[in-house]
Amino acid sequence: MCQLLGMNCNTPTDIVFSFTGFATRGGRTDEHKDGWGIAFFEGNGVRHFVDHQAAVASPIAELIKTYPIKSTNVIAHIRKATQGVVSLENCHPFVRECWGRYWVFAHNGDLKNFAPRLDGAYHPVGSTDSELAFCYLMQEMRKHFGETAPALAEMTQFMRQLCSEIAAYGTFNMMLSNGAALFVHCSTKLHYLVRQYPFTKASLSDEDVAVDFSEVTTPQDRVAVIVTEPLTTNESWTPFLPGEFKVFVDGAVLQ
Amino acid sequence: MCQLLGMNCNTPTDIVFSFTGFATRGGRTDEHKDGWGIAFFEGNGVRHFVDHQAAVASPIAELIKTYPIKSTNVIAHIRKATQGVVSLENCHPFVRECWGRYWVFAHNGDLKNFAPRLDGAYHPVGSTDSELAFCYLMQEMRKHFGETAPALAEMTQFMRQLCSEIAAYGTFNMMLSNGAALFVHCSTKLHYLVRQYPFTKASLSDEDVAVDFSEVTTPQDRVAVIVTEPLTTNESWTPFLPGEFKVFVDGAVLQ
Description:
Two copies of one chain form a homodimer. Chain A is α+β, with helices and mostly antiparallel strands.
């Protein structure tokens, strides 16, 4: 199984603190050493880093930990291979374009006998069930809504339905973002919290690192962090329920 | 105007030497300081780095210069903005998926009144004429050949025709790769060379750096390098003719 990390904020925020704890699980405090990846939205653009080395041994992960890239939507993944060999094309997150925006997707879980019909709009490049599910999601969205992006509420309703359909094939913990919203589906395990004023100090569970967010934020800032296993020891993380689907916009839970 | 750098090899090769000279033009020895980017194929996967900072000031460019990523197909670009603001989504190279492979594209030049009809298969995310041309290229390819990739010869013939059609709108120096072949079209300025046995020593024109390729290669290695302006002072670069279209496979010029 893999682990997922997502961040959604109302102001561009760096993920150095959370990623430092998360990346440690990529081969040191946990066994997810079959590659990793992270994607940052900056405006409509995306910075996408993938590596089939363990995150703890990757010079690119080292760069991410030291170079504060500010973003309003981030999705990261550390991989423990279940389906698909260890190779670059099988590293999450995956990126595709739809309606003139990039879409970023990562998945934790395992789908059995999932073989949807693809009509050619999106093909997987690698051999994971995850990328196949992503291509199917994007295909169905585009088929359903046509050539123009729908409003968020309609998109959310349709995507919730699709996720629940895919989740019938196994475990489908997933994060998807188009740079405006972060969509999250939970089959088995995900947690989230919203950091907002008054900000406090947080300590990582996987590294001896703490940060006082009141020193690096303004009172208007709001940041939602979503992760497989809680990243800090002294904050209150809310577990997702099995089958739950949530949308985060501007650092807040919409539904 | 921008500058382009491409590499196509028969064995995974790092681009540290060429990129070191090339990146120096991104704000130090030349004026291309409005962002840069590079994409490396590794198998079917792609590592894609873009930055809207000048290449000479970018920590990510620094990483590329010190971390030898081995690849058989690389496309890099340094930008001097002509159309489209300086932002991440306007940095080349651009990436899309077609027929289950990633396609990477970069362009140097300027297209006037180029407004092709897009059918929705590929939309630009940013505002450059370059990404629009790329989306049009991919759309026409998929429309023409349907849902299965054609043989290289057919693909080449069709792409040559498309490039010449687009080039009628202005300057269209471009590089495109699907990880197997590197397609190059020249409107105004591009040069190439093929490094193969017996390898010699090469010295960069933009930095005081030299490398003896005979020490870092095997006699079977073959590497084609394609670039806007020659990168080295003591090798023989072949200029492209205006309107010329070439395909590189396994480090050799196919046609």
